[in-house]
């Protein structure tokens, strides 16, 4: 039987800030721009006790928690800690698949076979080592497959370790609301509930496959398999065959300022970059999705001047596209996609625009879009407005 871990850092951005500034420990924190219309990226568990959570408008968070301490995000720090975290996990088993900036899957089957150590003991050691070296607590799910491991890591936080297998899913997973099933979106959950499928157990036990098919479409079969504790997907760190990688986030509250859109694009760019690095791929073609309502969304794409997997480059282009496209309507979903993926070794990637600068003088709050525009100029490239680039490059 396989042994898969899913490891997810607890309140990641908030705990990174605490690691940098220990005086913040124990305080109710929200990581966000401190402007009236901003949206919270994440909250410390002290702030969550007041109901503050990711994607909540900051003014509501402040109302819920008057002593809230608002901290500006520092993505450079998060990225560094993310790398450190993944390297620690890789020292246990090389089969590691980063899933976002703060989480990864790790297949430790081989290690368990050779050392005969109990999976729980390995998880405990790993968690202690991650905490000792990064100062960030994490939770670990231990399961025979990726889906159950992902569900398990979310069950006990912070510093939780949860074993979830087909022999205990009845007690541990089936009673959970269907909306907490990984992969079920915020719009799908209410539709399932209306049809009487309110728990994960209901998905597992539904005998009328057509009912699920109507609600979940092509994914009905796979979701029922998941709910029954079955998932054959491999932990795969080097998916060279993928043609594209994309990430998106649906926001509970619409994003209403360019500042917030930029902040959230940055978070998405970090995630997509982590995944591209893990797969060893680069791309020169980026798209940004902005969704305004159920019916209305726009996807705009452009070709980048070089192949990259670098988060700063990706976010710079994403912002360029978004700035050009944004027309002040509230945005409910943002997505970034990279396609034309090729193995990193196959193309000559230019240095990141940022590598032109001496890293030691680099300011953390460097504006990526300005840097990109500067790079266009300094490389002698014609400086075009994003609109013009879009007209040229946009795909039919
Ligand atoms: P998560 O792992 O979803 O959340 P978390 O680590 O803050 O909390 P938990 O302990 O429940 O795992 O996301 C990782 C980071 O990604 C999070 O710290 C901030 C960022 N993020 C956003 O910027 N916007 C969002 O809407 C979410 C969900 C996360
Ligand atoms: Mg997390
Ligand atoms: Mg996570």
For the record, the CATH class of the largest domain is Alpha Beta
The CATH H-level superfamily of the largest domain is Reverse transcriptase/Diguanylate cyclase domain
Physical arrangement of strands within the biggest beta sheet: 5-6-1-7-8
Q: What is the second-level CATH architecture of the largest domain?
A: 2-Layer Sandwich
Count of helical regions: 16
Average pLDDT over all residues:
88
Q: How is the secondary structure organized here?
A:
Layout: E1 4-9, H1 12-20, E2 29-31, E3 42-43, H2 45-48, H3 58-64, E4 69-71, H4 75-90, E5 96-100, E6 103-107, H5 109-115, H6 119-134, E7 138-143, H7 146-153, E8 161-163, H8 169-172, H9 188-194, H10 200-205, H11 209-216, H12 220-227, E9 245-255, H13 258-279, E10 281-291, E11 297-308, H14 311-325, E12 331-339, E13 342-343, H15 368-378, H16 386-393
Parallel strand pairs: 2-4, 7-8
Antiparallel strand pairs: 1-6, 1-7, 2-3, 5-6, 9-12, 10-11, 10-12, 10-13
Helix pairs in contact: 1-4, 4-6, 11-12, 13-14, 14-15
The structure holds thymidine-5'-triphosphate and magnesium ion (2 copies).
Give me some keywords for this one.
five-stranded mixed β-sheet, 16 helices, binds magnesium ion, DNA polymerase, domain 1, binds thymidine-5'-triphosphate, Dna Ligase, domain 1, alpha+beta, globular, 3 domains, 396 residues, 13 strands, five-stranded antiparallel β-sheet, disordered C terminus, Alpha-Beta Plaits
């Amino acid at each position: 039987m396989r042994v898969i871990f899913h490891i997810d850092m607890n309140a990641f951005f908030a705990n990174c800030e605490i690691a940098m500034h220990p005086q913040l420990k124990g305080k109710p924190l929200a990581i966000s721009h401190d402007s009236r219309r901003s949206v919270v990226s994440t909250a410390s568990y002290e702030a969550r006790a007041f109901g503050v959570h990711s994607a909540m408008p900051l003014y509501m968070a402040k109302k819920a928690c008057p002593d809230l301490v608002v901290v500006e995000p520092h993505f450079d720090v998060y990225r560094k800690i993310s790398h450190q975290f993944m390297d620690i996990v890789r020292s246990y088993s090389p089969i590691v698949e980063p899933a976002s900036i703060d989480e990864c899957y790790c297949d430790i089957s081989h290690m368990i076979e050779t050392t005969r150590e109990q999976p729980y003991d390995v998880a405990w050691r790993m968690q202690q080592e991650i905490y000792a070296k990064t100062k960030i607590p994490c939770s670990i799910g231990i399961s025979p497959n990726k889906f159950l491991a992902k569900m398990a890591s979310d069950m006990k936080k912070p510093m939780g370790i949860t074993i979830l297998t087909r022999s205990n899913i009845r007690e541990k997973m089936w009673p959970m609301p269907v909306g907490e099933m990984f992969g079920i979106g915020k719009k799908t959950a209410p539709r399932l509930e209306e049809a009487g499928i309110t728990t994960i157990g209901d998905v597992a036990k539904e005998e009328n496959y057509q009912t699920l098919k109507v609600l979940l479409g092509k994914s009905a079969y796979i979701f029922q398999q998941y709910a029954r504790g079955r998932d054959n997907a491999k932990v795969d760190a080097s998916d060279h065959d993928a043609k594209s990688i994309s990430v998106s986030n649906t926001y509970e509250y619409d994003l209403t300022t360019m500042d917030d859109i930029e902040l959230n694009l940055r978070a998405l760019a970090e995630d997509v970059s982590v995944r591209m690095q893990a797969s060893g791929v680069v791309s020169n073609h980026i798209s940004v999705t902005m969704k305004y309502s159920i019916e209305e969304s726009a996807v705009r794409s452009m070709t980048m001047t070089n192949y990259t997997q670098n988060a700063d480059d990706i976010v710079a282009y994403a912002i360029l596209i978004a700035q050009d496209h944004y027309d002040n309507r509230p945005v409910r979903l943002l997505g970034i996609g990279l396609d034309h993926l090729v193995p990193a070794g196959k193309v000559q990637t230019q240095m990141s625009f940022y590598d032109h600068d001496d890293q030691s003088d680099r300011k953390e709050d460097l504006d990526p879009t300005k840097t990109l525009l500067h790079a266009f100029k300094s490389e002698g490239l014609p400086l075009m407005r994003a609109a013009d680039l879009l007209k040229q490059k946009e795909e039919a």
